[in-house]
């Protein structure tokens, strides 16, 4: 039996982010910040946070910056994401993302993962399709 996800991710329930322990901290127009407390079960064979985990937390935080508010009637579908890994993800991590440009249907974002000491761990850029949920739609 699994626990029910209860974390509020800026107006959304996202079981996977809850499962890995991502903590939503702040959201503002074109900006989002989250943190990931270090856990051994999120690491690779060297004890660093796994690259797949880093990409997942970047994907969510960048998409939150694209939404820019707690408007749960909008969704983001990742079209493209490019991630560069610069140093090991050790200890607790801080993720900050910015929406660089948002049009009627596409948003362009960038973001960073940093260790608590400020060292840059990973940087990503992403493009999102903005999905507006329609009343009575899917």
Automatic annotation (TrEMBL):
GO molecular function: fatty acyl-CoA hydrolase activity
Gene3D superfamilies per record: Hotdog Thioesterase (3.10.129.10)
UniProt cross-references to SUPFAM superfamilies, sorted A to Z: Thioesterase/thiol ester dehydrase-isomerase
Domain Thioesterase as annotated: residue spans: 47-122
A Pfam family that the UniProt record links to this protein: 4HBT
Keywords: Hydrolase
Record-linked CDD domains: PaaI_thioesterase
Record-linked InterPro entries: ACOT13, HotDog_dom_sf, PAAI_dom, Thioestr_dom
Family: Belongs to the thioesterase PaaI family.
Protein name: Thioesterase domain-containing protein
Organism, as annotated: Achromobacter piechaudii ATCC 43553
